Amino acid sequence: MGAEIFRDAWGIPHLRAGGVRELARAQGRVTARDRAWQLEVERHRAQGTSASFLGPEALPWDRFARRCLLADTARRCFAALEESDPETADWVRAYVDGVNEGLPEGASEEFARTGLAPGRWEPWTPLAVWLSTHILFAGFPAKLWREHVAGHLGPDAVALFATDGPGTAGSNGWLVAGERTVTGRAVIAGDPHRFIEDPGVYQQIHLSCPEFDVVGLAVPGVPGIAHFGHTGTVAWAITNAMADYQDLYRERLRRTGAGVEALGPDGVWHRAARHTETIEVAGEEPAEVEVIETDRGPVVIGGPEGLDGGDPADPSGIPVAISLRHPPRVTAELGFGALLPLLRARRVADVDRALDAWVEPVNVVQAADTEGGLLHRVAGRVPVRAAANGTRLVPAWEPGHAWRGWHETPRAGLTDGVAVMANQRGPAAPLGVEFAPPHRADRIAELLAGKDRWSAADMPAIHTDTHLASAAPLLDRIEALDGLTPRAAALRDRLLRWDRRMDAGSTDAAAYAAVRTALVRRLAAHPAFAALAVPPAYPEVFQPWLFLPTRVGYALEHLLRAPELYGVDRTAEVRAAVEEVAAGEAPGTWGDTHRLAPWRALPGAGYDEPGLSGDHDCVLCTSAVPGVTDRAARGPAARYVWDLARREDSGWVVPFGACGVPGSPHHRDQLPLWLRGDLVPVVTDFTRLHKETDV
């Protein structure tokens, strides 16, 4: 028996096959049919070839991908997988075979607009896509920011700006044990927060064969279901653990007649691997990039002559480059060996064993099964090394910064039958440096404590909660203001009456956001922080982590609560912000400016950007960038509820739809539900599905 493709009313693919390999081939083929353009964009991004059809705007990423050796690392990891786990390697090959079969069937208007023809996937390509998707997940560029702050304001200033940074991605997740549900069986729910992309970064899918029957959210381009799945008897979900597992090293490099050498911690110059590559750029001349790898890892910033802008970036005046060390490059392991065991899992213990093989990214995992088993643990590889490695750039030429094995991944239990994970300092605390503020986690726990018994149907009310606890420090300072003009006093009184909910239709939420924006801009422009306003001459791909208004916006709580702020008169700045907003045109509703702004590889395939409820620290985490824009590029990339009593009572939704082809009836049909907080029912009965084809 080969494989069959079915669809439900929302166009979600349901695949049934006679064997594991046939099922993987069908998954690759249906993904290519539904997401051909998305798959090809991701393949090219992983290879550093996207500028060849997207033009010069894609060049900074391509330079980074080449210098970071993403494709080469994927090749290494796949070769190692073939040696250590040939079954999984063959399963990945089957998926790739399906992708290559399906790509010619999935061509869409984007290919015609760019002149791009679907290319060929290699067996290692899914691993490259995974690496490319997650290489910035741990936010290692935040170390560049910490170094920047410490260099200008001193090390004590770093904590003032410590919060969930602009490039990291988080999630909400919660597990309610059977003792706290109406059915007596556990419920798992949550929503991963990532950059919202069109097509979406998650694919709803159902995979069925004699060995397993699993529904879940797959990453297009990667076989199986890694992050969020339900096998009928066990379900699992993850959030970003906010662990620190990537290091940046300052490197001293020199050119020789034979190439490039790097100064090691033993005081000896060692040969570094070096070659040049050419990046094709649509509409412009090709660009050349020098790729260097030291014993620490690939050089991602600068070279033997220092930074690209000519600044050596070292107080001594000696040119310095920066290399990246991360687990897959070191170990040639990515964690794909966990994927098949996850699909085959029947109990929590099976999920637990599978995750022992996980590498990157490092996640907090929750799982539950129909027999009452529960799991709350961290999964992934975090190196043991000096504490300094986690907080700043460390000198490659000094001893004491080498990796010394791997941390054991922590485990945690439940409190009053509940476990909440929202990127806060939870079980992963020993493994990280910066974590998300506790507001989302505290609010979810507060809501779950509000009643004794919960059902799967209750969970969307938590998904969509808009209470903004992080408003307190600014509102406290506003409350203390006196001597305001009449209009400003009226605005102050109005904000103090506000229910602190960031609802799209709220004019009070809009007024609060306007004051917050005005304050962030004033603080970012203050002379006390002038040195931070000029970032180092690092490549463009790192600039979001170094943009001062963004950093001030996300760290506003710390900046307002610190005992002293480098001589900044915060009362005067808050007063000026309130007066500024009061004197201007009255803000409309929060949804007028807080609109969904998804990333698309090609601009122009647009639609009216809908207004959104929520904010960065709400459970409904639709992230604006205070002081920069109210538009939200990040938010819930999916929502799910896994019911362990009856899988058919589970639900899920994605921001747009199951199909990535513009004009398809299932391209954006889930958007209205996503905006309302509704879920699409999970269907697993093949008699209720429409058969599309055999493959």
TrEMBL record:
InterPro entries: Ntn_hydrolases_N (IPR029055), Pen/GL7ACA/AHL_acylase (IPR014395), Penicillin_amidase_A-knob (IPR043147), Penicillin_amidase_dom1 (IPR023343), Penicillin_amidase_N_B-knob (IPR043146), S45 (IPR002692). Gene3D superfamilies: 1.10.1400.10, 2.30.120.10, Glutamine Phosphoribosylpyrophosphate, subunit 1, domain 1 (3.60.20.10), Penicillin Amidohydrolase, domain 1 (1.10.439.10). Pfam families: Penicil_amidase. The keyword Transcription does not apply. The keyword Hydrolase applies. Keywords: Hydrolase, Zymogen. Belongs to the peptidase S45 family. PANTHER family: ACYL-HOMOSERINE LACTONE ACYLASE QUIP (PTHR34218:SF4), PEPTIDASE S45 PENICILLIN AMIDASE (PTHR34218). This is Penicillin amidase.
